[in-house]
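pasting for ref
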Amino acid sequence: WEERGIQGGEVDKQSQIKLALPKGRLLGDTATLLQRAGWGLGGYHEGMRLYHLKSRKFPNLLAKVFQDRDIPIQVAIGNYDLGICGLDWIEELVVGYPSSALFRVRKLGYGDGALYTVASRSEAATLDELLAKKGIIRIASEYPNLAESFALRNRLRRFSIFPLWGAAEAYPPENADLALVPVMAGEVINHDLAPLSKVLSFSAFLIANRSSWESKDMGELLALI
């Protein structure tokens, strides 16, 4: 838990604040946010080689870098006190585990996008059209909980969910009838796919473990964001 070149003193574990930070799509904007906030995590940037960081400004602040999708889980189970991640992954956890100890602190103003259900243009132009053609609707997604919620909300009588790790848009039409995919602001959905419905708009959020939020003093840190 030491950033290279720093020799940290002993910090009371009760006062430690552990922060989960994202790789991937949110990394650049999150690094800019933390730099402006002065949290002292200069080792967090594009092209970094360190995944365990210690703040140069706050001796009790430690950070680790995760895949975006893993951060809500790490915060909910109490491994980390704070996290920054997309609302899409927050909702994926909360839909599956409504009683999770996850607390949304605030929206951060970047990382905008949306989840869409998409189908092959050769198969259907609307969800009703697709339902009329198919017996069992096969749904491929990185977001199995949100995919199931979509199916139940739209009263799909017969469906199956294929949980994936990335690239769900490659599955229709041969291996899935629908895919639930994230589309970032400014991106275009693959021209072979037709968007059928928007399931969720998302952006980056600061989240906290509810127990940590109630028991630890994070006011000085949060006042800087």
